[in-house]
C-alpha cells in the first residue's frame, strides 16, 4: 500500500528549515493580494520556533505554503522554503507526498474538523503510516497504540470516532497522528485555540517534551503571544505579511526592539505572574488590498515619524540572533518605557502620532 | 373597548396603516435590490428571456395560430389530412385526427404558462408561509408542521394526482390542486431552516423587545430576507409544475378539450403514431424541455449570484 | 413514524374515495355485481352505518389485506397488486441502483473538476436532461431504438412465446433482460440527475473542509483523498435526498410503465382509474405509497449506518 516513494537528496549540512525571501500571492476578484511579503527565517534542529501575529498577518499562509497546502487561488510567487536543502515549493506532487508526514507533519487549527468524522481515529492514523511504510495493518495498529500512550490517551479508545472525543482529546489524537512517522519537523497551526486553559497547558507541555525527548522541532503558529512565550526557543513576529522582529525568544522578550512587539506584549495576559491591566493596540491592520506606503505598522504606532512614511523598514540585526524592522532602534529605551503606559496607546485613538509624542513628553515628568 | 377615546383609535389605525405601508415599502425595496442582483447573472437573464418568450407566445397565440386546434384539415381530394409530414400548409404537419400540429403547439403554451406560473406561486406562497410560521414560532407549531411534511413525503405525487383526478374529475384545476397540496414540502423545509437562524438576528430581538407583534415581525423583518430563497424555489417549481401537468395529461387524465403539450403527446402515444410521426412528437416535448430549462436557469443563475451576496451580508 | 405515515395515507384515501361520483357506495360496489354480492359488500364495509363505523370496517379490511374486488377483472385486488408488485420493483430498483451508483460517481468527478470546461459542459448536459419530461424521453428512445432501428422490443415485459414457471426464471431470463433495457435506460436519465448534482455540490463543500487539508498533508494520493475522505462525507446528503426523491421516482416509474406498456403497479393504477375501477385504483395507490414509505425508512437507516455521529451519539 506504500505509495509515496520518490528518492530525495537531503543536504546534511543545511539547516532543518530555511525560508528565504518567501512571497505568497492570492489571486482574487479584486486583483492579486500579497499575503506574505518576502519573509526570511530559519528553524534549527531541536528547536521550537514561534510565528506570532494578529489574524490575517499571513502566518497561517506561511504554514500552508510550506506544506503545499495553499488553496487553489494561492501561489508561492517568489522565494523558497528549503527543508534540509530541498526546496519544498519546487517539488512535484509525488516527491512532496514522500516528504509529507514522513519528515514534516501538520497539526492543524481547530481539531474540531481536522479529523474525518466518518472514519475511526485508528484508521486515520494507520492510513498515514501505511501510505509511507511497508507495514502490515497489525504493525500499524501497534504503532498507533504506542502513539496514543505517548500523548496520554488510552489506547483502548483508538477505534473511536472523532465525535466521541472531547476537544482536548481530539487535539492529542491529532498530535499522536502527526508523530506517527517520527517526523523531523511538526508545523502546529494554532494548536491550542478553542481549548480551555488547562488543556492548553497540557498540550504545550507535551510539545516541549517532544522536542526534548524525541528531538523533534516544532513551528508553532499562534496569535496568542503567551502561548509562544511558554514554549518557544526562537520566534518571529509577523505583521501584515512582514516580519517585524525575529530571533532568540528570551532576548526578544527581555529586550524587545520593535514597537509592534511592545504592543503585543501588553495585549496578552501571561500564563504565570499577575494579571496587570491589558492594553490593546487600537485600530486594526491595514487592508492587504490597499497597503500604505512606508512602514506597515505606521498607522498604529505611537512612535511613528515622517521617516516612517517612505518605505517599510528592513530587518536589521540589533543583537546576536535578534533582528528588528524599525527606523527608531536608537530610541528603543524610551519606546520600551513609554509602551508600558496606557496613555501612549490610547492617545493614538484620539489624535495620532504627533499627539502621542507630546503626551509622552509630558508623562516623562511624572 | 369602552373608554377608548376616538383619538387613540384613530392613532391605532394610523399606526396600522403605517405598518402596512412600511411592509409594502420593504417588499418593494427588497424586490428592486433582488432585481438588480438578478441582472448580474447571465444564466438568469437567459432563462428569463426564454420564459418571457413563452409568456408572450401564450398571450398572442390565439391570434397567430393558423388553424383552430381541433379543426379538421382536408386534403385536395376531400379526405382527412391525417399524419401529414411538415409542408407549406402545415409547417409542423398534422396529427392522426388531421389537426394542425403547429396550432396545437402554439395554443398549448397557454396552459403551460398558466400552470407554471400559478403552480409556482402557490408553492412559494404556501411553502414560505408555513416555513416562516414553523421556523419563527418553533415549539409545537414547528413540530406539527414538520410532522405533516414528513407524512406528506410518503405520498407519491403522480399517483396522488391521478387519484384526485379520478375522484374529482379531469380538469386543470384539479392538477393545480395536487401541486398545491404536495409541492410545497421542500420549500417549507428550507425556508424554515433559514428562519431559524434569522430569528436570532439582533434586529429581530430589538423588534420583539420593542413590543412588535409576531405578525409584524414575520411580515416586516423576516419575510423580505427570505424572499430570495422563495424566489429560487418558485423558479424551480415553475418547471416542476409544467412537467407535472404534462405528465398527468400524457397518462390520459388531462382535459382533452384544452390543447396542451401533454395532451398532444398523449394522442401521439395512444394512436401509436409516434413511431412514425416525428413532427408530432418532437415539438411539444422540445417546448416543454425548453421552458423548463428556462425556469431552471432563472433559479440557478439567481442562486449563483445571491449566494455570495448572502454570505457577504453575514 | 413509518406507521403514522401509513395510517395517515390510508385515512386520506378513505376520505378521498368517498368523494367519487356516485358516493361512497360506488367506490366499493361494482356496477356488475348481483344483489347478493352487493349485500355482502355492504355488510363488510358497513355502508349503511355511521361514518366512524365505516372507517373502522375499512381499517379492519385493510389490515387483513382485503382491498375488495376489482370491478374490471372480477378478482381480488390483493392478488392483482401482489402480482404486479414484482414487475414494478424489478424495473424501479434496477434503475435506482444504476442511477445512484453512476450519479454519485459522475457527480464526484464533476465536483473534482470544478471550474474546468469539461465540468461546465457536463453541467449543461445534465441540465438539459433534467428538463426533459421522462415520458417524452421514453417515446424518443422507443422511436429510435425500437421503431426505427429495431434493436429492442416495442414494449411489454416479455415476448409472445415466453412462459415461465417460477419468478426467478422469469426475472433472470434473457428475454426479460432484453425487454428491460430501454425502460431502465430511460428511467436512469430521469433518476441520475439528483444524485449527480447533489454529489457535485457536496463535494465542493467537503473539499474545503479541514480534514481534507489533513489528508493532503499526510501525502495521500488524490484518488484516495477523493474517494475515502471526500466522497464518503459528501454522500451523506445524497442518502437523505433519496428519501425525499423517492416520491417523484415512483411518478417516473408510473410514466415509464405506461410508455413501455410494462405490466406494473403504475400502469395498472392508471388503467384502473381510467376505467373507474375504484378498488383496484385504491389498492394500487396504497401499495405504491407503502413502497415510498418503506424506502424512506431504509434511507434513514442507511444514513444512520453511514454517519457514526448519528449511530453512536456524541459526548
Describe what you observe in this structure.
- The complex is a heterotrimer of chains A (366), B (314) and C (315).
- Chain A has 366 residues and is an alpha/beta fold.
- Chain A has helices spanning 59-67, 93-99, 111-114, 121-132, 137-150, 167-178, 197-214, 225-231, 249-254, 259-267, 332-339, 342-350, 353-363, and strands at 17-28, 31-43, 48-52, 74-83, 86-87, 104-107, 185-189, 217-222, 234-239, 242-248, 316-319, 322-324.
- The longest helix of chain A has 18 residues, at 197-214.
- Chain B is an all-alpha fold.
- Chain B has eleven helices and no strands.
- In chain B, helix 1 (6-39) packs across helix 9 and helix 3 (101-137) packs antiparallel against helix 9 (214-253).
- The longest helix of chain B is centred in the last third of the chain and has 40 residues, at 214-253.
- The two termini of chain B are 45 Å apart.
- The relative contact order of chain B is 0.15.
- Chain C has helices spanning 2-17, 23-28, 35-45, 51-63, 77-112, 117-131, 134-148, 167-172, 174-191, 193-207, 210-217, 222-259, 265-274, 278-306, 308-312.
- In chain C, helix 1 (2-17) runs antiparallel to helix 14, helix 7 (134-148) packs antiparallel against helix 9 and helix 10 (193-207) runs antiparallel to helix 12.
- Chain C has 315 residues and is an all-alpha fold.
- The mean pLDDT of chain C is 85.
- Chains B and C meet through helix 4, helix 5, helix 9, helix 10 and helix 11 of B and helix 1, helix 6, helix 7, helix 12 and helix 13 of C.
